[in-house]
Amino acid sequence: MTLRPYPRWLPLVLLLAPLASRPAAGQVGATTDIITGTVTGPDSLPLGGAVVTATSLETRVSRQRTTDARGRFTIVFPDGGGRYELTARYIGMAAVQVTVARQADEDRIEASIRMGLFAVPLEPVTVSARSRSRSDGSGPGSSERSYNPEQLARLPINASDLNTVATLQPGVLGIRESDSTATAFSVAGQRPTANNVTLDGLSYGSGSVPQDAVRSIRVVTNAYDVARGQFSGGLVASTTRGGTNVPQASFTYALRDRSLAWGETTASPFGQGATQHQLSGGMGGPIVPNKLFVFAALQGRWRAQALPSLTTADPGTLAQLGVSPDSAARFLALAAATGVPVTLPNLPDDRSTNTTLALLRLDWQASDVHTLTLRLDGSWESQEPTRVGTLTLPTTGGTRTTLAGGVMASLTSYFGGRFINELRGYVAQQRRDARAFLALPAAVVDVASDLQNGGQGVAALAFGGSFGLPQHTHNRSLEIADEFSWLPGRTAHRLKLGIDVIGTRVDESQTANQLGTFTYPSLAALAADSPAMFTRTLAPRAQAGTAWNGAAYFGDSWRVGGGLQVIYGARIEAARFDGAPPYNRAVDSLFAVRTDRIPSEVHVSPRVGFTWQVGGWPKGSTFLRGGLGDFRSLTPTSLYAAALGAPGLANAETELTCVGSAVPIPDWSRYAQDPSTIPSQCTGAAAVTVAPHPNVTAFAPDFGAPRARRGSLALLHRFGSSYYWVTLEGSYARGVSQYGFRDLNLVATPRFALGDEAGRPVYVPADSIVPATGAVSSAASRAHPEFGRVLLVDSDLQSDTKQLTLSLTGATAWGAAFRVAYTLTRARDQSSFSCCSASAGFASPTTGGDPDAREWSRSSLDRRHALVGTVTLPITRALDVSAIGSVTSGVPFTPVVGSDINGDGARNDRAFVFDPATSTDAAVANGMRTLLAAATSAVRGCLRSQLGRIAARNSCSGPWQPSLDLQLNWRPAWFGLDRRLTMSLLTVNLLGGLDEWLHGGAHLHGWGYATAPDPVLLYARGFDPATNRFRYEVNGRFGTTASASSGVTVPFQIAVQGHLAIGPLRLRARPNPGARPGLGADGPVPQDVGARFAELLANPVVVILGLRDSLGFSSEQVARLQVVSDSLDAGNRPIADSLQVEAQRAGDGVDPTALLRRFGPKLTEGQENIRRALERARAILTAEQWSKLPDALKSPARGASD
Predict the structure, then answer these.
(1) Between the chain's N and C termini, which has fewer beta carbons within 10 Å?
(2) CA-to-CA distance for 97 and 115, rounded, in angstroms?
C-alpha cells in the first residue's frame, strides 16, 4: 500500500516516538488495565518481596509481580476484562486473596492488601473494589455507558452494528440507514462525520463487527481525557474478544421472515417487510496455556426485501404517493415507447443484501511484562438492485459491492516498575464500486394528479439510467499510535504522553449525474419527446491524494483525595494533504483561489475534567462530574475528493446545463448502442452550441478541521438503599470551523427581483428563463461564463447546542433493571450538511435570498424532546422480557420549491408562503386554501405563521415519532445445557402494528419507524416575463410522511433468535442498584464461588518450595518436594474443577453456605490429600527445617464441617 508522499513532519514524529515512548492516540490503552497497590504486614509496614498474582476472572489468565521495598506493585493486564482476583503470598504469612474491579472514571485499579500471620486458607479475604463491572473508562467527568454482549443479546437491537448501539445512550440522535447510506448518529448537535468509532483502541471505519466477536461497546457522549481524539461529536469505543485459558465458543442465529409479518396497508412489496437470516459464531482458546491464545469469528447475513418500484405499486400505494393509477399507467406506456428498457432479463423481484464479516485474533503473552496482539478483520457486502426509487422503474438501479479489510498489531510493555508503553498500528483498505444497470441518461417526469382532498399532488417519476451511479471508492489507511505512561510516587498521578498518526489515501469518484438527466415538466412533454432541461456533470479525472493527521498529547490523571479525581492535559493536532490537484492560473487570476494548495493546520486542544464523590468513599452517595474541553474531528475525505476532481481544467469535472431550445433531442436507442454519444454539449434546435463549463472546488487558505468547544456538568444521586440513581446533566457545545461552501462564480448583483415573493433576488436575466416551464439555467448566473460553479470550501460556519438530560436508573431485588432518560435539546446551526458531494453541501442550507449568506436557524439535527428507555423484567429463572422504547419530537423541515428558481444552480430555494386571501394567482390561492384545510395542525400552524413571506429554514416540524420493541428470552435447562441456550422472540415495529390495528391502514398516525415529511410546497410550472413572476402549482402532499417515506410501510413482524454458549458459563450478575449510572456498569462484581472453594484446596507444598532459599533446601529435597507437589495437584485438580462446574450450575444468587454443605464430601477428600502430602513433605525435611515453617503450613486446612 502506497501512502506517499508523506508530510515533512512525519519522520520527526516517528523519530521521537521511541525516545519519548509515547503512545497511542487517545484510543490506545482503552483495553488495558493497570493494577497497582501496596502490600503491608500485620504491623501495617510495607512488605518488600511479596509475590502478587493477578488472575482475570474473565479469561483466567494470570500475571505475577513482586513488591518493591516500599511494598508497591504494578501489574499491567491487556484485555483482562476489568475484574481480577489478587493473591498475595509472603514467607511466613498467610496468602490473602482480594477481588478488585475497575470503574469507569478510574484509569487504574488500586488495591491495598494487608497480610497476617495466621493462615486462613478456607476463607480467603474477598474485597470488591468500588462496585462495577468492566468499563473501559474515559476518565473523570466522562458521560458514557458500556454494553457487553450478554446485555445486548437480551435487547431487541442489532448488536453487530456499533452505530445502532450508540442510539441507546441518552442525547444520541439516530439516523436510519438507506439503500445507499449506512446507519449514523449525531451527538451534541454535531454532524455525523464528527463522530469516531474505534475497535480495540484504533479507528475503525466500517462500524460492523461479528456479533459473537464483540466483547464490549462503550458509547461516550462527553470525555475529557486528552488521549481520546478524532471526534468533536460522539465516540463509540468497542473491543473484541480474545482467546483465554478456557476454551469457549458462542453461536447466534437470527431469523426474520415475511410470513411472520402482519399488515393490511398494502399487499404489494411496499408493505411486505423483509426476510433475513443472520448466522454468527466465534470460538477461541489457548494454543499454549498462559502464553498464546486464538479467537476467530465469522458472521453472515442474507437479507431479501420485496423491491418497491413504480411497476409493483398498487392503487392504494400510488394514492399515498400522490399519483393516480391512470397517470402511472400512461407513464409506463410512454416510457416503453421511447425504446428504453423497462425491465431486464434476470432482474430480481427482491432487493438482496448480503454481508459477511470475519475476524481473527492472536494474543501472545511473551512475558509478564510484554503482550503482543495481532488482529485481522475483513468484510464483504453486496446489494442488488440498489438505488431503485419507489417512483422509478427497476432498471434505474444498479449493483453495489464493498470489500474491506485490515490488520492490527499492538504491543503492551511494562518496565522499570513504573512505566507502561502501548504501541499499536492498523493498516486497512476499503473498496466500493457501484454500477448502473443501464449506461443511459436518467429521465425525470413531473406528474400532477388530483388528490382526494381536492388538491393536486406532484410526483417525479423516472426511467432510463441512474442519476447517482456509477460510483467508485478505494481508500487505504495507516494508523500508528503509541502511549507512554508513568506512575510516579504512590500513584496519585498517572502521567501519559502519546502520539497518533493517521494517513488516508483518498481515491474516490462519487460525482452524481455523470451520464446526464433529461427533465420533462409533464406527461404531455414526454409524449412529445420535448424535455425542458438536460444537465450533465462530466468527471473523467482520477481523484487520488493522501490526507495526513497527527496528534501529540500530554495528560495527567490525578487522584486528589476526598473522593475527588481530576484529569487534565492538552492535544496538539496537525493536518496536511499531499497530492493536491495542479495549479490553475485562470482560477487564481479570476477568483484569487489556489487549486494546488490544500491548507495545513496545527491546533492545540486543552481539556480538564473531574469527578467528585461528595463525602468521599465509601459513604458518599452523591457525585458531581463535569469538564471543559476543545475537540477536533477529521476533515471528511469527500471534501478532498471534491477538490481533486474539480480543479477547473477541461479534462476534469465539467458541468453542462441546457434549457429550452438548447436541450438535445433524446436518441435513446443510439445512447444504448454507444454511450459515448450521450450529449456533452447543448445543441438541440439552438443555433449556438454550448459546451460544458469546468467546475472548481478549492479550499479557503484558512480552512481548518471541524471542532467543538464543549462543557458538561452532572449531578448523580443514589436514593435510600442504593436501589435507584437519578442523574441530572447539562451540556453545551459550540461547533466552530464547521465546513461550508460559497459559489465564487455567482454574479454579485441580482439581475432582477420577484416582486410577489417579498423581493426574492434572481441571479439570471428574466429572458433566460423558459416561459413554458419555468426552467432556469445557472449558466446565465456565472460571473465568468467560461467556468461553471467555483465552490470555495471554507470553515467559517458554526453551531450551538444546549442539552439537559434527566435520567433514572434502577434495579429491584428480584432482578429487574431499567433506565429511562428525557433529553431537552436546543440545537441551532448555519448548515447541517454532513456528506458527500460539494454541490450537495452548497445546497444544504436552503436560501431565501443571498445563497452565500450565513444564516442561523434551527438545526436539522435538532429534536427538541426525546425520551428513551430500556427495561429488563425477569419472569422466572429461565424467562425474562426486555424492551427498548423511545419518543422524539418531530423532524424539522423547510418548505421549499421543487426546482431552482433563483438561478444559482441549486434546488434549495425556500418557498414563498402565498396567502390565499391576497394571492393574485387563482390556482395558487385555491391550492393553498385546500392544503391549509387538509393539513395536520402542526403543518397548518407552520404555514399560517409565515403567510406572505419566504419560509424560514427548518420552520416546520414533523409528527412526534414513538417506537417500541420487545424481546422475550427463554433459557431452558433441558438436555444438560445448563441454560447455555437462549431462545428469543423479538418484535419489529410493534408500534406500527398497533397503529394499524387501532386506526386502520387508511388512517395511520405515523407510529413506529421514523419518517421525514415531504418538504416541497411549490412546483414551478412556468414564468411570465412580462410581470417577472413564476407560475406555481401547490403540492397537496406537502408535510405528509407517506410520500416522503416513498410509500414504504414497515409492517409489524416477529423475529426469532437463538444463542448458544459453549464452555464454562460466566456467572450472571444481578443488576446492582448501587452502581453509578454512567460511571459504571450495571452490576456488581460477582463472587466466583467455585474459585473460592477451589482456593480451599490450595497446594501448601508450593509455598514450602518457595521457602527453599531461606530454609536451605538441598537439590535432592527440592526434587522430592516437587514430586509431592505434582502428585497433590494431580489429585486435587479434578476436585477443584468439579467444584467450579457445580458452582456454575447452581446459577445466580447462590448461597455459599448451602454450597459448602453440598461440597463437604469433596472438600474433605481434597483436604485429606493435602494432609497426606504434608506428611510426605515432613519426612523429606529436617526437623529444624520443619519447625521453621509457619504453623499454617504444617496443619491441613480445617474441614468443611468446621
Answers:
(1) C
(2) 10
Please give the grid coordinates belonging to residue 877: 429463572
- In terms of Cβ atoms closer than 10 Å to its own Cβ (0-12, 13-18, 19+), residue 1060 is middle
How far apart, in whole angstroms, are the C-alpha atoms of residue 405 and residue 401? 14
Q: Minimal CA–CA distance to 726: which of 802, 626, 805, 610?
A: 805
198 within 8 A of 27, measured Cβ to Cβ = yes
Instruction: Give residue for cell 386571501.
Output: 917
CA dihedral 204, 209, 214, 219 (to 10 degrees): 50
What is the C-alpha to C-alpha distance for residues 260 and 1055, in angstroms, rounded to an integer?
7
Query: In this structure, are residues 130 and 145 in contact, taking their beta carbons and an 8 Å threshold?
Result: no
| H-assigned helices in 630-738 | 637-645, 668-673
pLDDT band at 29 (very low <50, low <70, confident <90, very high): very low
46 contact partners, CB below 8 Å, separation of at least 6: 38, 39, 40, 67, 69, 70, 71, 72
C-alpha cell at 955: 420552520
Maximum Cα interatomic distance, the chain, rounded to a whole number of Å: 122
Amino acid at residue number 755: G
pLDDT at 126 over 70: no
Q: Measuring CA to CA, which residue among 442, 522, 461 is closest to residue 772?
A: 522
Q: Is the distance from CB of 127 to CB of 99 less than 8 angstroms?
A: yes
Reported as a pLDDT band with limits 50, 70 and 90, residue 17 is very low
Contact yes or no for 296/284 (Cβ under 8 A): yes
pLDDT of residue 811: 81
Give residue limits of the domains in the chain.
32-135, 1088-1202
pLDDT in tens, 402-451: 999 999 999 999 887 788 899 999 999 999 999 999 999 999 999 888 77
Region at 211 (left for phi over 0; alpha for psi -120 to 50; beta for the rest): alpha
Residues 6+ apart with CB under 8 A from 346: none
| 536, 653 contact by CB (below 8 A) | no
Hey, what's the cell of 788?
A: 461553471
The string of pLDDT tens digits covering residues 1032-1071 is 999 988 988 765 556 677 788 899 999 998 876 554 444 4
Residue 673, pLDDT score: 93
Q: Of 533, 511, 535, 456, whose CA–CA distance to 1016 is shortest?
A: 456
Which residue, 159, 272, 289, is CA-closest to 213?
Answer: 159
**Backbone region of residue 744 per phi and psi (left: phi > 0; alpha: psi in -120 to 50; beta: other values):** alpha
* Chain mean pLDDT for the chain: 84
Question: For residues 693 and 654, what is the distance between their CA atoms, to the nearest angstrom?
Answer: 5
- Map grid coordinates 462564480 to a residue: 745
In angstroms, the Cα distances linking 485 to 29, 365, 373, 420, 497 are 10, 20, 19, 5, 7
Of the candidates 1127, 1158, 1128, the one whose C-alpha atom is nearest the C-alpha of residue 1145 is 1158
Residue 977 C-alpha cell reads as 445445557
Whole-angstrom CA distances from 1035 to 35, 324, 951 are 66, 14, 15
User: Taking residues 991-1013, what's their average pLDDT?
Assistant: 74
pLDDT tens-place string over residues 646-684: 898 888 888 888 988 889 999 999 999 999 999 988 875
CA dihedral 926, 932, 933, 934 (to 10 degrees): 110
Average pLDDT, integer, range 455-475: 87
CA 1159 to chain centre: 48
The answer to whether residue 1161 scores a pLDDT higher than 80 is: no
Return all residues near 999 (Cβ < 8 A) that are at least 6 apart. Answer: 1005
For residue 300, what are the β-bridge partners?
279, 356
User: What is the CA angle 1054-1057-1061, rounded to 5?
Assistant: 165
Q: Which CATH number applies to 32-135?
A: 2.60.40.1120
Q: Is 1157 in a helix, a strand, or coil?
A: helix
How many Å apart are CA 102 and CA 35, to the nearest integer?
Answer: 9
d(CA 643, CA 635): 13
What's the N-to-C CA distance of the chain in angstroms? 68
